[in-house]
Predict the 3D structure of the following.
Amino acid sequence: MTTSTARAEVALAVARLAPAAVVLLAAPLLLDVAFGEPGALEELHRRAPDVLGKAALCTLVGSYAITPIATVTGWRWHVILRRDYGLWTFAIAMTDLVLAATLDEHGWRTGIAGTAGQAAGTMATLLLVPLALTSNRWSMRLLGRDWKRLHLLVLPVMLLVALHLVFIGSEAFAVAFVSVTSVLWALRLRPVRQWVTRARKVRA
Ligand code: HEM
């Protein structure tokens, strides 16, 4: 094994496990909930939308960035992360949705469609369901060309996430999200992709 292959394998292992940090960070609180500590469930409900929302945002952007990164760098070793991060986004956003829909010990819940922000977050999360369900090889083979068409659903997901951030009053995150995803989207356009690939090969 060459040094660069070994480095790529270590980088891949770290990148694949990185989203699990959100579970580790939440572990103390989850243990408190499991052991029935007073106020722990209420605290979980209070902190979950913020922590899970940010984690879902990172994995969503991460998943969308994989192909443009391949275009710019020529790497292929990291392509598996597209599916990994997509599934992480689904798992984290679904947990967010389930917690928002369930009552805490004081009978209080965030709600899933009571405000425009909640409705946009809920719709974005629900649109991830078909993407997650068809993220396996069997579905890819079965759907053929339709698999790619189905995955265009990621665009309304992005739009709904941007609206979610605007409606909950998180303008800074909305601007950062729209700016980064616009650049990533531009890098996916065929003429841009071809130009970047040619420029990379000339420089090599
Ligand atoms: C793909 C799915 C989602 C993404 C990417 C996402 C993203 C985010 C982000 C980044 C934040 C933090 C904003 C900040 O700190 O300024 C946040 C907060 C929040 N999200 Fe989401 N979210 C998603 C799904 C949901 C769902 C399903 C719900 C509930 C129905 C929800 C409800 C909330 C609430 C209530 C907040 C807290 C607002 C506050 O702190 O005042 N989100 N979300």
